[in-house]
Amino acid sequence: xxxxxxxxxxxxxxxxxxxxxxxxxxxxxxxxxxxxxxxxxxxxxxxxxxxxxxxxxxxxxxxxxxxxxxxxxxxxxxxxxxxxxxxxxxxxxxxxxxxxxxxxxxxxxxxxxxxxxxxxxxxxxxxxxxxxxxxxxxxxxxxxxxxxxxxxxxxxxxxxxxxxxxxxxxxxxxxxxxxxxxxxxxxxxxxxxxxxxxxxxxxxxxxxxxxxxxxxx
Length: 217
Fold this sequence. Notes:
This protein is of the alpha+beta class and 217 residues long. It has helices at 10-21, 52-68, 163-175, 193-200, 207-213; strands spanning 73-75, 85-90, 105-117, 122-128, 135-142, 144-150, 156-162, 185-192. A five-stranded antiparallel beta sheet has the order 1-2-3-6-7, with helices on both faces. A three-stranded antiparallel beta sheet has the order 4-5-8.
């Protein structure tokens, strides 16, 4: 368990406390947008650099910021912090026929996450990012992954994820290695959120649109 034999980084802990404080009573932090160097940096593995008290407050602030955005995941880099930590959470929608295979993904703190593809099946759907605000594009992702992470208590977890939860986990884990979803998206599919809703909302897997836009799924 991290924290037992590690030393708190006093300077970093102080900086994180200031970051948390900047969110005010609402506990909402500004989300870093594409172009900020922190989004392109490999994060440092978390091994207990923060006090337990500060870590708990950071997680609470990140969750509040994520839900307010609103989003289903938020990586530490998206609030300007270069630590391998993210929060994720999503819930089942009313639409049972959603082809993205949305499933319940309760709130998780994922620290030092990594994933390994299972099989060769992939799925392509429109995807967005709180750090590339206002746009979405089609991104191919592994359909199934074996996910590993530590929680806020230092306990290690392994779980096979499928469909939408697998996509969320991949998206947030990629953030921590300096990757944005747009890096490997089908650029010709890029659309504003408004245009996506107006023109493509009924075709989240844009098979017919693909031929018109000139990309393969």
